[in-house]
Amino acid sequence: MNTPVTEPSTNQPSLDMGELSPHAEGPRLIAATSSGDHLALHWVDGSQAHFPLLWLRDHCSCSECRHPLTRERLFVPLEDIDEAPRSTLVEGGLRLQWADGHVSLYDAVWLHQRRPGDDADPNGTLTRLQRPWPEAFAPEHVKYSDFMTTDGERHWLEVLLRDGLVVLDDGPLIDEEVSRIAGRIGPMRATNFGARFDVYSKPNPNNAAYTAIGLALHSDLPNWRQPPDIQLLYCLQNEAEGGESLFADGFAVAERLRVEAPEAFRVLSETPIDFRFQDEEQDIAARAPVIALDDRGRLKEIRFNNWIRDTLRLPLDTIDAWYRAYRQFWLLLHDPRHQIEFALEPGQMVAFDNRRVLHGRRAFDPSTGRRHLQGTYLDIDMIESRLRVLQRRT
Amino acid sequence: MNTPVTEPSTNQPSLDMGELSPHAEGPRLIAATSSGDHLALHWVDGSQAHFPLLWLRDHCSCSECRHPLTRERLFVPLEDIDEAPRSTLVEGGLRLQWADGHVSLYDAVWLHQRRPGDDADPNGTLTRLQRPWPEAFAPEHVKYSDFMTTDGERHWLEVLLRDGLVVLDDGPLIDEEVSRIAGRIGPMRATNFGARFDVYSKPNPNNAAYTAIGLALHSDLPNWRQPPDIQLLYCLQNEAEGGESLFADGFAVAERLRVEAPEAFRVLSETPIDFRFQDEEQDIAARAPVIALDDRGRLKEIRFNNWIRDTLRLPLDTIDAWYRAYRQFWLLLHDPRHQIEFALEPGQMVAFDNRRVLHGRRAFDPSTGRRHLQGTYLDIDMIESRLRVLQRRT
To answer: Which one of A205, A299, B164, B198 is CB 3.0 to 4.6 Å from B353, fit for a cystine?
Structure first.
């Protein structure tokens, strides 16, 4: 089918495939053969694959099929492709001329990476990097001055996705530094507590965080349909006695629960409960299980916050079992094997995945000194996006 | 068990149950009898229910068990309750004195509404109100001046949750009015396009919306793990020829697909695909099915945006079926029975549920006049919360 081209074409075919990331290295294409409504491609490394014609037409990146500025797809795959295109191997890839004269170009490596049947999830950065905490887990620290470099920031992002927690050291003691750090990555996720919040002991708190009491491990805002993903907590002052930060890897502990107390795991993952926060201005409620799984049974999210558990509305014969399961998870989370503790120093910032890693703090005595953290939230999409963009530069 | 109280107590029991909403009217409690680790309650209307003791202890709203300012739960249910409390009927409710001397009060109606086994979802505002569009659906309009009253705003919120779309009429032609309207309800949900975006024809667009081309029906930002829920689009100028707004109820059409083309529905709801947006600053990607169902098979979300469909990565033998299913859904959505069309006038604002209702627009000719919309997003949690708060006032 490697027929020379004769028909004219007005579209501007392109090998860039609409991608901003540089194409990776890969094998050269050596043959293209038509077979019914598929095209069979062969690479020099011996790999081969079949591509449906409609798939090929749909992925044309010419200026008619992809908007030349936005790079968005303009082609809509509403028609079957009845006639095989004329295919030609060209420098770097494949050229197809369709029955209507339209010409498409495809990069050989781009095609190789997207062979049908190779169902890797190239965009699933989070899932690929995630690693549960071992016992005696010690969080990784990144220096602020390193974070300000491309490599340092990239490392910080990777650790955050891998461990669900990373500590930044030696940052400046400047009001709103946490907002500037967030701004490098993406827009802050605003909630009923604002886009950026101050954590200190307040006279009229609407939230336990704004008191001086100890806070057992919890996740923030499980009463939202979509709780915030990533929390940044920047320490400006920490002179009060107490107030050490507490963390536990909710995913690692839930996996332990799955093994040690499968019935408790089942109850917590199959029973939606209500979470709710009320103040004069808001009444925000959501129903979801404490442990959320995806359709393959993998951990997706932990919602754990005893303060804003709403009325437990369950059938009578399941209530005691739910409390038992909750207690087992509570005790496992707060077990010293799983709960880590450290005092944040001024100029340190902890970033953690609020849907995976639970956080808390020891009580502090506000009469012994000031404790002041500034916090904000980021969508995890922004963490992954930032990492992909920084990877373009390497 | 209605024994008179003798032990002293330091806690301050309360009948308010930590709720800010006024208690509804309901039947009077007439008897409380102990039965093992449950308490059986009887109301004057003949209803009765069993309450586990630990449940009752967990829901105590005294000042030790609920923070008196934040109203958040302080009690942690880590111990079994081995001994039945002494119960007394009091004006408006029930008084329990526990073995350790702790005293709890419960409002009779509050208990009646929360009888175990009555598994209504009191916080599930959205699901309760949702109603699919009939054929020849005409959107409901609310006047701006009405919206500025409690009843008018409440109606606007209810229509938005019910139909997934509501039009505001006769608003002022003031820059940023859309931000002020959003600010009444909750914080704006910022994305890579900003917290508040302008929709007009731009010289260097990074998004098809910022051109003058026609936009087929789509949902915004399906390439985010959590696409924005509610979109507000406020029209400031619309003098150009064309540019009519298009909408379809994605849920109603998906239900139609489920009946008319069950195989297409199955393919679209069971096949995660990739969505991705790239520009110089961002590379935001997510994998999800076009039609997302909850674990009971009910529609949860539609992700439909042909511009930012990324490479279709599927096993070879499923690709043609996916394109067929996509085409069937596309054609059904754009069918004149389902797609509605109207020109937004200056001072009109359309609000719609971006995870349910698809939107688009006809091409316009920027040489014939200016077309300028301002938009933002809100979390649906904020819509529901605002409705609950306004309901307190009635």
So the answer is: B164
Q: Mean pLDDT in chain B?
A: 91
CA–CA distance, B357 with B374 (Å, rounded to integer): 19
DSSP assignment of B269-328, as one string?
Answer: HH-EEEEEEE-SS-EEEEEEESEEE-TTS-EEEE---GGGB------HHHHHHHHHHHHH
* Rounded Cα–Cα distance for residues A136 and A249 (Å): 12
Distant-in-sequence contacts of A173-180, Cβ < 8 A, 24+ apart: A173/A236, A173/A346, A173/A347, A175/A236, A175/A374, A176/A374, A177/A234, A177/A349, A177/A374, A178/A232, A178/A233, A178/A234, A178/A349, A178/A374, A178/A375, A178/A376, A179/A374, A179/A376
Q: What is the pLDDT of residue A24?
A: 75
The complex's ipTM works out to 0.92
Give the closest-approach CA distance of B274 to chain A in angstroms.
8
Say yes or no for a CB contact (<8 Å) between B67 and A211.
yes
Residue range(s) in chain B whose domain bears CATH number 3.30.2020.30: 29-113
Q: How do beta strands B93-97 and A357-361 pair?
A: unpaired
Judge: B379–A224 Cβ closer than 8 Å, yes or no.
Answer: yes
Q: What is the mean pLDDT of residues A160-183?
A: 97
Helices B150-163 and B380-392 sit at what angle, rounded to 10 degrees? Answer: 140
* pLDDT for A121: 67
Per-residue pLDDT reduced to its tens digit, B302-312: 999 999 999 99
CA A318 and chain centroid, separation? 34
B24: phi > 0 → left, psi -120 to 50 → alpha, else beta; which? Answer: beta
Nearest-by-Cβ selection for B311 from A59, A195, A229 = A59
Cβ proximity of A373 and A344 under 8 Å: yes
Domain A29-113 CATH class label: alpha beta
Best residue in A311, A324, A382 for a mutation probing chain B (most B CBs within 10 Å): A311
Instruction: Tell whether the model's pLDDT for residue A227 goes beyond 90.
Output: yes
The CATH number of domain B126-392 is 3.60.130.10: yes
> Smallest Cβ distance to B77: which of A20, A226, A327?
A327
Write out residues in chain B with pLDDT < 70, as ranges.
Answer: 1-10, 118-123, 125, 203, 394
Query: pLDDT per residue over B200-233, tens digit each?
Result: 877 677 777 777 888 999 999 999 999 999 999 9
Give the nearest partner residue to B276 out of A123, A278, A282, using CB atoms: A123
Residue span(s) of chain A under CATH 3.60.130.10 come to 126-392
If one counts every other C-beta atom within 10 angstroms of the C-beta of residue B338, the result is 20
At A141 the three-state DSSP class reads strand
Q: What percent of chain A is helix, strand and coil (3-state, nearest 5)?
A: 25, 30, 45
